[in-house]
Amino acid sequence: MTYIVFIDDHLMLTNAIGVWLEATGRFTIAGTAASLEEARKLMKELVPLPQIVILDISLSSGKQDSVQEDGLTFIPELEKICKERKAPMPAVLVCSMYEDPFLVQRAMDLGAKGYVAKSAVAGEITTAIDALLAGETYTGVKSKKRIRTKHFMP
């Protein structure tokens, strides 16, 4: 059984995906966190740590001021938590509404192993999880190449 943690402030989405993943009989949702503060606490206390963390980029701070937190900043924190706990680092799968290749690259540079857009088809998340469990990386967001054109001035 593969243990998964969701770090996402859209509870309806995490609950729906969680139920769907658990219905496959292959996955168990070990915990959820809606903010980075909750994520820190969960990952320090959870036994065992999950094999997969599904992380959103834009998270509510959990406070009334509704400041948005950058979920990607949690990846280095998670590495530190794992070192302190002498536990292996879970594979981080970023699942975000953003499909910007810059953000995909930033996520991978910070240590994410995969990236799936929230607009992806349902089966893509299991494809991504399977790739991560096999030690591979997965990027479901297609890079859009910019076409350079020459403009001639008369």
Concise synopsis of the structure shown:
By secondary structure, the chain is α/β, with parallel strands linked by helices. The chain contains 5 helices and 8 strands, in the order βαβαβββαβαβαβ. The chain has helices at residues 11-23, 36-45, 74-85, 101-109, 123-133, and strands spanning 2-7, 27-33, 52-55, 58-60, 68-70, 91-96, 114-117, 138-139.
Structure notes:
This protein is of the alpha/beta class. It has one domain: 3-Layer(aba) Sandwich (Rossmann fold), CATH 3.40.50. 36% of the residues lie in helices and 23% in strands. It has five helices and eight strands. It has helices at 11-23, 36-45, 74-85, 101-109, 123-133; strands at 2-7, 27-33, 52-55, 58-60, 68-70, 91-96, 114-117, 138-139. It has a six-stranded parallel beta sheet with strand order 2-1-3-6-7-8, sandwiched between helices. It has a two-stranded antiparallel ribbon with strand order 4-5. Strand 7, helix 5 and strand 8 (138-139) form a beta-alpha-beta unit. Helix 2 (36-45) packs parallel to helix 3 (74-85). Residues 144-154 have low confidence and may be disordered.
What is the topology?
Blueprint: E1 2-7, H1 11-23, E2 27-33, H2 36-45, E3 52-55, E4 58-60, E5 68-70, H3 74-85, E6 91-96, H4 101-109, E7 114-117, H5 123-133, E8 138-139
Parallel strand pairs: 1-2, 1-3, 3-6, 6-7, 7-8
Antiparallel strand pairs: 4-5
Helix pairs in contact: 2-3
